Amino acid sequence: CQLRKMYILERADCTVVLVVLWFGNNIPALLSKETFNDDKHGLILDENSLWKVSCYNFKKLRIMLFLGIIPLLYVFLSPSVHVSRRRDNSEWQRDSCSEARPMSMFLSPKILSDTIIQYSLEESHGRHKFIQRVLDDTVQYDALMSVCVRSLSYGQDRANLYLKGELEEICDEKQMEKTAEFSDSDINEIKSILNPDGSTPSSFRQIAERIEELFLPDPSEDPDGYIGLWEIIAALEGVEYTKYMRTNFENPNNDDQDSWSWYMRALACRVLVHYDFLTFGLGNEIQKG
After folding, report:
1. In a designed cystine with 68, which of 22, 114, 132, 271 is the match (CB 3.0 to 4.6 A)?
2. What does pTM read for this prediction?
3. Measured in Å, how far apart are the chain's first and last C-alpha atoms?
């Protein structure tokens, strides 16, 4: 929509400029008394006739009008030409302004690199602050998803190396086996926790359950791991506040959208913490044994 608005304004500005130029160049030559009373222009204004054009200067007048009108006609007739050209571009293929952006854009190396620089994610304190910013809802969706996807991909790379005996770390082998089995579609599911505008999706409870099942410790199999992640969130947000927001989210009769959004952002933070985002970051290199 923004592109179309800018295009219309651009065309309108061009039209105004051309109109001003045309009148500025042609009207003085047509309407000034000096022109009308000057024999060399061939135009005389009298009481009996508004316009008398001499044969000698009629050709000059016609060329002047032609040069002034043609650009105006081009401006008004050009939209279809410009639009047809723009539709050849891959960014102009959608007819609806409200259509969702392609999900592949969130894997853009530029988005990720810009996010790393903006939030100092190569440093430990920058990563800790990033988690707090996510909970405070001050991180844009694109940035958050690029970090989540990269963190999961990096975790999978480390898991594969661990299972090959090439990683110098003491890890939970069962967790590493689960992580190594992630498919690309599994990792991409993390993007569904929020809408691209940062709002909560309509099926947020089902999505939360799916993400927890895919990426987080099972509370029945690993209660310490499950509770530990919530304890980190509580340390940042406060125990009572965390308990209050979780209770609101889990209540099916509750319609507090703030608690829905908070829970989904906390879910992203729990995933990041569980896959060692705070400890290892997003990893440019992996230490091998």
Report:
1. 22
2. 0.62
3. 53
